[in-house]
Predict the structure.
Amino acid sequence: MPAFGKLRIMSARESEALRPAVLQVIESIAPDADLRALRADLPLRDQVELDSLDWINVLAGLRDRFSISIPVADEGRLRTLDDLVRYVDARQREGRHAASVPAPAPDSDAGRQFLVNGELVAIRPIRADDKEIESDFVRRLSPETRYERFMVTLSELPPKKLRYLTEVDQVRHVALVAIVERPAGPSEIGVVRYVVDDSGEACEFAVAIDDAWQGSGLGGLLMQRLIDIARARGLARMEGLVLATNARMLKFTRQLGFRVVRDPEDRDTVRVVREFRAAS
């Protein structure tokens, strides 16, 4: 792939052909923004109110709309509307469509770092030797966050549950952790996972973020990585069970493109669903 800084200059005709479609993607994430006043050569997030999760969704929308891949290494270089239009044009011309991208290997995120809240965060698959940091992570969660994640009152993970959460095959049970380095050693600050159901067509996800990191965009970053893996591996949909009173989580999943499915016989929880393709 050519370096982003060396992308060829598009003609005015090419730019105008792609620009409205790119703007439609932005409008779908920020419907209240006045895109007519947008300066195409200035940073987009300085002009449109897009939080970290919204920005992740803009990039995901471009992937879906134009059937292109956007490697993580390129994401930080996409700042202006002109950047996005040029990039979409270049990726389409390369012909590297998302459908041809192979499914990520289980260790595809090993050693990959992201800047979140000014701090380097490593995202990688969880390992069997992560039991200590996983257990410590759950202990540090507030009682409310623990209940929202596990839907039971607990303060310590039982050994059997801890083994289940860390000894995963990264095929039918995929789990990613976010790690920061501390003087005492690595510290887990977030985890996402999905488990494929018996049909092999769908998966159920779960996410937990350290209370101090909630609202930082870390949850969206982790979930988008998980969604990318599920989609690339050909799953039809991703589902999750959310407490009906957890307004924050319901808003979070809506931002990620999930729809809410209510069960009239269960007022305590709702199911959130995101389709990737029609089930065969």
Q: What stands out?
A: The chain has a mean pLDDT of 82. Strands lie at 112-116, 119-125, 173-182, 185-196, 202-209, 237-243, 259-263, 266-275.
